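hiii so my PI (J.) wants the whole complex modelled not just the main chain, which honestly fair. so below is everything: two entries, each one labled with what it is. i double checked the lines twice but i was tired so who knows lol
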Amino acid sequence: MLHGCLLVCAFATVAIVCQLAAAQPVPPAPQARFVVVLDAAHGGDDAGGRLANNQLEKSFTLALSVRLRSLLGARGIQVVTTRESDAAVEPEKRSEIANHAQAQACLSLHVSENGLGVHLFASSLSPAQPTHFAPWKTAQAAWVTRSLALEGVLNSALQHAGMSVTLGRTSLPVVDSMACPAVAVEIAPEMGPDKKAAAGLDDPDYQARVAEALAAALVEWRSEAHQP
Amino acid sequence: MIPRHQKLLFGILLLASLVMSVTLWQLRERAHQRLIAGQDSAPTSAPEVAAAEQATLLVASDIDGSMRTQFHSLPLPDDPGSRARAVLGKLLDLYAAPDAAHSVPGGGSSVLQVFLLPVPESAAAASVKPKSAESSSAEFRANKPSAAPREQPQTGPQLAVVNLTGSFADSHPSGIATETLTLLSICGTLHANQPRITQVRFLVNGQTRSTLAGHADLTRAYLAGDAAPAEGMQP
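here's the output for the full assembly
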């Protein structure tokens, strides 16, 4: 009789514990990984273009990469950079870093005194179906459609920030070998209402606005990527 | 005492000198009269090597990253390669002008040669747009019927190999936009004037080079038809 009562109590206890466990809130599923690759173009012996006031493109792109990394980090976005100092990095190595990161967005950062506003370039490769093994020189072909979508998001954010944007397609060896949505961003002096340069590349306010707009675009891109 | 035969020889030489002096004086006078009478036969105008024809140039602008079609009257030779070189020379002359919207130093002498080769059939099938190429070709022939290539095959797409000078590439402004515009405008201009040109490759001083000025890839073949203004860079 006593054994029977103990068994009933034990079963009741187990049932209550199970119900309590079931009533606990389910922890949310971890969000999908979102990584951005920032490629500061040039570096080391490759100075890139020569800008006004004897600035070098390699220095400017590195400064922009560092600034953008901070902005994205503050928004909870994981960032991988191709260089953190004035070091020469081969184009193949840059693409390799991006491909190893399995990033959701890759930006190749450039600066030029030619033209006005911000120039956005996607690869000029024809879109192709993804394959298990992609040719190195045309790996971007399977991602061109996504790259064009990323270019559109960047365009919207930059125009929302009041900047003049030029869209184009080009053939850059670094971008053409990237297996991720990739866009080359080239920053030129800001265009004024009279279609002449309103702010130079060395204007800190202009630099900050460009970096903020790019960061906002990548946040928007993340939210689109996480939509079911 | 001077011998007689020496006196005679001296007299003959003196007489010959006098005759030559008079003749020289007369020739000089005749030449002087001819100059005064405006009978100079020296050429006053350069010889015409080819008839002037209308060439279509795709001219780039850095301001909005666009390419616009311009028509220029140029003396164009019959040989397709020389013809392509002449058209590109004019295009690069426009870019070297002080007020150019797409400023690139170098000018027309920056194009060393343009070689035209048949495109391999497998590559041609992927790149040719037969309908548009045919209609453009008809317009081109209407401009000058005798301009059809004589030594090249009469049909089929062509690959143009443009050999640029090293000084042109070295002095080209660095930047994705400016380099891309230069290459696309060259490709588009070649295709607009010789629609059989469907692909373009670039050499610098006869050698392959990785990029034009640090950005645009020079190791690949460009599809010339893709450089049409409507499909180019637009704001």
